[in-house]
Amino acid sequence: MVHTLTPLTIGELLDRAFADYRRHFVLFAGIAAIPGVFLLAVQLASVFFKPAGSGAVVTAIFWLALVTVALVTTMMAHGATVVAVSQIQLGRETDIGAAFTSIRPRIGELIVLSLNIGVRVMVGTLLLIVPGILLALRYSLAIPVAVLEQCGVSDSLSRSATLTKGHRGRILLIYVLLYVLILIAGMLWPLLSVLVLRVTFSAVQAGQTPVWAQIVLQFGSFINQSLIAPILTIALTLVYYDERVRKEAFDLEHMMRQLDDAVPGAPHTT
Predict the structure, then answer these.
(1) Angstrom distance (rounded) from CA 5 to CA 254
(2) pLDDT at 263
């Protein structure tokens, strides 16, 4: 299905995000799950390895490895999802392998960009919270910009600030609506698992959960994350295109390119 590139209301944007997610469920869930397997492996290792009881140095190394793997896998999934959404919006074929192949050379730069945004937002949050929220909105499109426009860290931040200017209120509303949904969905599995454990093993207390139960919890969290993680990225990528349509007439630009491609020998518009 080829989408028409037109300005979208918040309701239309969210409706399209969920429609794309449903229509391409295997694609998006697969993109989220494949990098997540590596994070799951590290988390399962912690169940058997018990780093907290192995000394401060070993514990520090383990948690550093966990954070590193989490950051790399998150950016892989995030970047590949942006690529997949873009291809769908522009009416092009894509698959999981192509999305990862496209993003692989830029993983390092995306990690640096993510850390840069994280530090800025953290500092802003420490300054009475509101500045952190404003910075998060200002740079909310930096990852799509970096992926789709091949921009460096500084240019991606600047470009995101330009694209979001004047529309950060609607981006905030999209964030709030999706975060509430994601938070509720993300809590269902842990709460259900804990409830089942409490009912089944009334004597189980914190720190005494059986190994098999810890493994089940980790697998459940992995599946849960694979299912809900793509939704916000899909929505933000759609916001990126929506802002370009509104501010740069990207819909007309894309239409002219399609016409150029349809006419053999025609000069390509830029």
Answers:
(1) 8
(2) 43
Does residue 123 have a pLDDT over 50?
Answer: yes
Given a cut of 90, whether residue 82 has pLDDT beyond it is: yes
| Pair 149, 159: CB distance under 8 Å | yes
Q: What are the residue ranges spanned by the domains of the chain?
A: 10-111+169-262
CA distance 57 to 82: 37
pTM of the predicted model, to two decimals? 0.86
- Which residue matches tokens 């997610």? 21
Produce one character per residue of 108-117: b if its CB has 16 or more CB atoms within 10 Å, e if not: ebbbebbebb
Cα separation, 179 vs 215, whole angstroms: 27
| C-alpha dihedral sign at 235, 161, 83, 250 | positive
Residues in the chain: 270
CB 151 within 8 A of CB 128: no
Average pLDDT of the chain is 85
What is the per-residue pLDDT across 215-258, written as a single tens digit (0 to 9) for each?
888 888 898 889 999 999 999 999 999 999 999 877 655 555 55
CA gap 254, 249 in Å, rounded: 9
